[in-house]
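Side project, low priority. Logging it here so it doesn't get lost.
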Amino acid sequence: MRKYQKFPGLAVFFSVVLAIAATLLFSPAAMAATCNWTGGSGDWHNPLKWSCMAVPTDMDDVTLNLTSFGAIVTVNAPAPAKTLNFTSNGATISGTGALQISGLATINAITTTTISTNGSRLPSLAVTLGAGGFIFTLTDPALTADSLGSVNISGGSNSTMVLEVGARNIGTLSLQNASLNLRAPLTVLNVMTWFQSSVGSNTGQPLILAAGSVSTLSGGGSNLSTELVSNGTQTWSGVGTLFTGSRPWTNNGTLNLNGSASTPANTFDSGLNFGGSSMPFFNYGTINANHTGTLKFETAGFNNHGTVVLNSGTLFMGLGPYTQYAGLLRFNGGNIAGATKCCGLDASQINLNGGVLSGGANSLYDIVGGIKNDGGTVLLDGNLKVTNFYQQTDKGSLAV
């Protein structure tokens, strides 16, 4: 019969190892938890305010359900969490510290809500605004550079999210029936989705769409009341209006007008509003008019330095004139009408101060109101039909 030798020291060693492993495996620091705020005002770093009986760590999913009006949660030191779910009825998270959220921060702002911190990290933000004219303000002068990689704002009839975080780049911005107010320049790097929403700024800060970005505008009743600079590809595919205020809109990229206007094409005194009555519009890129019906550019002036291709539909200059300084205006089936004159007279002319005007393929008219050529070239390579007059100075040219 074989005998086995006993090693008491080895047994003790394995017991210690197992005890250490069990301690690491089941200790609170090693286990992710769901930590719920127990209610009311208080200090984030008070463990008694959390259902997990500990201050949350970067492994924990954190929920603050502050439905009692006016609660204040104080953050005066780093406040890490894996995710944050914050429901607020007039609540505030504020202090000299920072929220350090590694995942998604979800904000349900039932009424006016404030997050005011210093140096927070919020890489992904989803905001739902309650209806009724309330404001959710995010203030952080030292928000980390990797914050706001993805921002989704939805809901909230007449309610607004105020972004007060300094000049900021956002990777993806989605606006769904929402309003966003800027307190510093905002640049969208990748994708912007805009559905029946508004962007404005009390301090005149611009919304910039970066080169290579893709943005879509759809739905009706959208409003832009601050400067827009588009360096990417922007596509309008809705059936509603886009109103703008007094700040300029500059297209340096590609603007595709793919929407549908209820006003039929070849309507030369009205149409679906696209623009604002005191807004100057500048094109240095490319505009492709592929829409149906009549779009009424209700702007202080349509100033073209790039390329405008009219493939379908009618562009009606509701207020200011179409003036081309350089580039190309090409007629491939669509047409353009100048601003309406009083007393039933013909529309105002388009101004060709530079660049080329070419094409002509509309069954009725290509240009309603005439052409004043004071430095451009009219290239007769199509069947161009113009009402009213053609006037040319010694600076202009006509080529066949």
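Brief comment: The CA atoms of residues 12 and 18 lie 10 Å apart.
Revisit when time allows.
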